[in-house]
Amino acid sequence: MSTYPRIIAHRCGGALAPENSLAGLAIAARLGCRAVEFDVMLTADGVPILMHDETLRRTTTGHGRVAAMTLAEIRRFDAGGPHHAAFAVAPAPTFSEALAACQRLGLWPNIEIKPAAGHDEATGETVGRWLAEHWNGTGVISSFSEKSALAARRVLPQFPQALLVERLPADWRTQLDRRGASAVHLAADHLTPLQAAALNDVGVTWAAYTVNDRVAGERLFALGAAALFTDRPDLWLPDEMQAAGA
Ligand code: G3P
Ligand code: MG
């Protein structure tokens, strides 16, 4: 029995607000969404912030590498205005600000550890440590980086983890065991009905990203998805979002 809410706002609901933003969290909650996904990366001075890309160029008014800049340097730039002038001016949030917002808004977080190249273990360890210190609710950690996932596991062994992949690898059960993970997050575009059946056969919770279309979403639920990651949580009604998955 999965405890996943059915609809997870991807990058905090990145079509409706700046991705990985506090505004996105507030809008997702206001729409009735109970779960969010966001990406966490380390600054040069070791502070975890919400950021998807290794550079600032796409999502902020700044430029440069996140891993080479301090929090103060990064927060001089606007991470709201590039999405829409209505969201200017807002710096990239810290992980602890995002956790506080989740607590206040009653949101279940999927914390995706997104290490800049070469920072896998430090990012995983920091996420684990910050969760231990700043969060007493539930949620799930995921990462494309096994090194990051295992580093978080060492610091916070009891916190749920999901295997995050684009395509389901042949050895997915071994990878789940290695990480101590109980769920799989995978790209909807690459998922086959046979793979869905294999996941369902062993009763593993699985969730698909990124689904911005209702018809595609219904097809994935029919295949057994516990949850969908979407940039458009507004496509679903509040009661459809909140029911627990499979
Ligand atoms: O965690 C699911 C999804 O967010 C993975 O892809 O690139 O959007 O972080 P990406
Ligand atoms: Mg992500």
- What string, H for helix and E for strand, traces the elements in order? EHEEHHEHEHEHEHEHEH
Approximately how much helix is present in the residues?
A: 25-40%
Please indicate the count of domains.
1
Low-confidence stretches: none
Radius of gyration: 17 Å
Overall body shape: globular
CATH architecture: Alpha-Beta Barrel
DSSP summary, beta strand count:
9
Bound compounds, each kind once, are: SN-glycerol-3-phosphate, magnesium ion
The CATH topology name reads TIM Barrel
Residue share in β-strands? 15-25%
Structure description:
It is built from nine helices and nine strands. With 246 residues, the chain is of the alpha/beta class. The chain has an eight-stranded parallel beta barrel with strand order 1-2-4-5-6-7-8-9, surrounded by seven helices. Strand 5 (140-143), helix 5 and strand 6 (161-164) form a beta-alpha-beta unit. Helix 1 (22-30) runs parallel beside helix 3 (95-105) and helix 3 runs parallel beside helix 4 (120-134). It is globular. The model has no long low-confidence stretch (mean pLDDT 96). The structure holds SN-glycerol-3-phosphate and magnesium ion (MG). Residues 10, 37, 39, 52, 112, 142, 164, 185, 209, 229 line the site of SN-glycerol-3-phosphate (G3P).
